[in-house]
Amino acid sequence: MKPVFSNESSVGGRLLLFGGIALALILVGQRLDFMAPVRTQLSLVAAPFYWVVDVPSKMLSEFSDMLSTRSELMDDNERLRAESLILNAKLQKYIELRAENVRLRELMNSAERLNDTVVVAEVVAVASDPNRHQLVVDKGSRDGAFVGQPVIDATGLLGQIIEVGLLQSRVLLITDSAHALPVRVSRNGLRAIAEGTGLIDELTLTHVAATTDIQVGDLLVSSGLGGRFPGGYPVGEVTDVSIDPGQPFAEVRARPMAQLDRSRNVLLVFSEQKSEE
Questions:
Q1: Cα–Cα distances in Å, from 159 out to 5, 104, 273, 274?
Q2: CA pair distance 42, 26, nearest whole angstrom
């Protein structure tokens, strides 16, 4: 009867033999160069296996980086969107400040051309009734404002103060149907009365003879008659002259020079005569 463990012993012996040979080759290969070509060939053969083994690790690392990059991009996008909104709001404010600066510069340039003393006022309210062309400015008796005081903007005569409070005053615009002022045609000195029509962009001249020398495009300025408005302020520009052969008077319409529905800053005029009083 053969021993049961004879084959197992032979297998174990072979493993020990091959292991010893491998260890000997390793030790010898580290000290001798003749094993270098063998190691090179083995490294070439093993390279694909190393690459395959490393693929899952690389994919996991790249996926993690991708998630991190996407999260960072989303955060940056939200931050940039918020900054954009803030910058747009500031830009709108800067645009308004620039426009206001231009208006004030035009207003002060207009004031420099005048011989009268002026005070800058800001429009703080307008009449809610469309049939009443009035507005409120932030200057009152404390600032020297008075009833009947002329009010102008950078382009022409705006109206006059009709009510004065301590801190604010009410202004009647020249286009109000209750307003009238003496004017003259700058080209030839013709005198007339400009009355408001209730339309913000229209004046009418009353009692202008049909034979009068007045033309479309003529500039109307305050005549100074009546002592209410100083002479020489631009009032309007003639836009239409209609003559009916059967009527003694012509129908003359004019467009106000002042920006009645857009002016934010105006000038209160203190004439030399009023200052002396």
A1: 127, 19, 19, 17
A2: 13
- Max mean pLDDT among 158-162, 207-211, 258-262 falls in 158-162
Sequential DSSP letters for 201-225 = T-EEEEEEETT----TTPEEEE--T
Predicted TM-score (pTM) of this structure: 0.62
CB 192 within 8 A of CB 224: no
Copy the structure tokens of residue 272.
């030399």
Q: Quote the CA–CA distance of 29 and 35 in Å, as a whole number.
A: 5
Top-ranked range on mean pLDDT: pick from 29-33, 57-61, 175-179, 232-236: 175-179
Q: Is the pLDDT of residue 30 over 80?
A: no
CB within 8 Å of 109: residues ≥ 6 apart: 154
Kindly report the CA angle at 59 between 58 and 63, in degrees rounded to 5? 120
**Given the DSSP bridges, would you call strands 180-185 and 191-196 parallel, antiparallel or unpaired?**
antiparallel
Residue 199: Cβ within 10 Å count: 13
Instruction: Tell me the backbone φ, ψ of residue 67, rounded to 5 degrees.
Output: -65, -40
pLDDT in tens, 90-122: 666 566 566 667 666 666 665 555 566 788 899
